[in-house]
């Protein structure tokens, strides 16, 4: 197992190395350009990195730019989809723009600082190919403490949903100007059913779309589908934007950890 840790803070690089070194050999890079050089050298040696943990805010080449370049490099080297590196973005930033930019660059996870080591490993393991998973004897297989997967949830503050949804739909409208966007009802992913929580999400999403004032938009409507799922860190909203049957954006994952609270048993 090869892991590349990219951060301009030496202390953060050492912390991540301590967390991840039991799982494999770790290399470090202090910025995006250095990371690309190491990544390409690994491809040339036919010993590619299995995991890249990368900060977003870095000099010379930031994490988003470096991730786009890594994906382009993998295409140039004809790396198959299942062989691509698992990319985890690690940052103190947590805005809708940061999250969308990260997932547009096809990362597999977004972890906030300060980093919870068990949670980071858990996120990596979610995307670990079975052929590698069997070799990770040191990998924790339980859900990390403090990251409940309780399914009895209520919004902590419904008003907090409005600005986050507004930021999301503004990004969609900016990428596809002059196109109307309509939302279908959000569902719980596993059961494909609506519930009180999905209705809260629906309300916030549709209010955000209404505030865009797209009455003057022309052409075929773009359809925004959403499902939510429970993960170790809380709730994730997964969005897909479609033009007819064509997927313009698929699998955009937006963490909603700050927007829910557990309800005690029997509550």
Key structural traits:
8 helices; 2 domains; Rossmann fold; five-stranded mixed sheet; globular; alpha/beta; 267 residues; 34% helix
Account of the protein in words:
By secondary structure, the protein is an alpha/beta fold. It folds into two domains: 132 residues, Rossmann fold, CATH 3.40.50.2300; 110 residues. It contains eight helices and twelve strands. The protein has a five-stranded parallel beta sheet, sandwiched between helices. Strands 7, 8, 9, 10 and 11 form a five-stranded mixed beta sheet that branches. Helix 2 packs parallel to helix 3. It is globular. The relative contact order is 0.11.
Strand order of the largest sheet: 2-1-3-4-5
Tell me which CATH architecture of the largest domain applies here.
3-Layer(aba) Sandwich
CATH superfamily name of the largest domain? Answer: Response regulator
Q: What is the CATH C level class of the largest domain, in words?
A: Alpha Beta
Label the structural class: alpha/beta
Return residue spans where pLDDT drops below 50 for at least 5 consecutive residues. 133-152
Helix content bin: 25-40%
Tell me the β content.
15-25%
